[in-house]
Amino acid sequence: EEIIGRSQPMIEVMKKVGRVASSSADVLIYGETGTGKDLIARAIHQYSNRCNGPFIPVNCSAIPSELIEAELFGIGKQVATSVNQRIGKFQRANGGTIFLDEIGDLSLKMQPKLLRALDYKEIQRVGQSIEKVDVRVIAATNRSLLEATKEGIFRSDLYYRLSFIIDLPPLRERKGDIPLLANHFLKKYAKSVEQQRIQGFAPDVLKKFEKNRWNGNIRELEKVVEYATITCRSEYISDADLPSWQFDQTNLNPKNMQNTLENLIDSKTIKEASQKFERLFLERKFKGNNWNVQLTADEIGLTRQSL
C-alpha cells in the first residue's frame, strides 16, 4: 500500500514520519476513522532500523477486555485445564514493532500492564514470571486521549509516555489530494477488460468529490470509487455512476423535513413519538458517518456496545 498525497498537511506528516522512524521513540498516531493510521505505522516501521523485524498489528477494540492480556502477553504452562500455552503479540513482535490500533479502548485494568511494557520492556504471560522483550510500540486512536484522561478512562501517565504524536489530517482538510487518491483507487479497481477502458472521472465528479465532507475519509472515498468502477459503462465515470446513498441530498429538502415533523406529531403516544425520533436521529447520524458504528457512538455520546 502507498501513502499518497502532496498537500501541505501530508508533507508535514511525512516529515514527522521521517524524523521519528530513525529514532527509538514509541509513537501515538491520532486520526479519524479511515485516515490511514495503519499505513503511517507501517511506514515508520519500514524506515526504521527494525525494518527487518516483524510488524505485528493488533486491533484493541476487536478483542474482549477479558482476553486482551493473554492476546498481548501470552499464556504460561498449566495455567488452567484445557488452556494451551501460547506466546502473545509482544513476543511475536520481538526485534520489531507492535502496532496497537484503537489503544483508547484498552481497559483501565490493562493500561498499567502496557505502561510497564513501555517503560521497562518487560511483560508477564498469564501465570508466568516476567520476561524481557525488545519491541517498539506504535499506537493509534481516533479519539482524544487527552480528553479521555480528564474523564478518568485513560491513564495520564500512559498518555504522556506516548509523547511523540503524529496528527493525521482528515480528507476534508487535504482536498488537493482527493484527485490523486481517486485516480489511484481507479487504477486499483479497474482490472477487468471492460473496466480498463475507463480513462478517468468527469470534471463534475471530481468537483463533487472535493465538496463532499468524507466522514469516513480515505476508506470512504475508496469504496465510492470501487462502486463507480463497477457501475461505469463508458470511458469516464459520471455522476450517474456514483452511489445514490453517498450523495443523495433529498433528506435535507425542507418539504421532506416538514413531512417528517408532521409524522412525529401525529404519533398516538409519547413512546411511539420517541421511538420514531430515535430511529430518525440514529439513521441520520449513521448516514453522516458512513455507517461507522464507533464514529457514530463517539459523536452521540454512547458506547459502541450501547449503540
Automatic annotation (TrEMBL):
A Gene Ontology biological process noted in the UniProt record is:
regulation of DNA-templated transcription
Query: Pfam families from the xrefs?
Result: AAA_lid_14, Sigma54_activat
Named from the GO MF annotations, one term is: ATP binding
This chain's protein is named: Sigma-54 factor interaction domain-containing protein
SUPFAM superfamilies from the UniProt entry: P-loop containing nucleoside triphosphate hydrolases
Limits of the Sigma-54 factor interaction domain: 3-230
Q: Which InterPro entries match?
A: AAA+_ATPase, AAA_lid_NorR, P-loop_NTPase, Sigma_54_int, Sigma_54_int_dom_ATP-bd_1, Sigma_54_int_dom_ATP-bd_2
UniProtKB keywords? ATP-binding, Nucleotide-binding
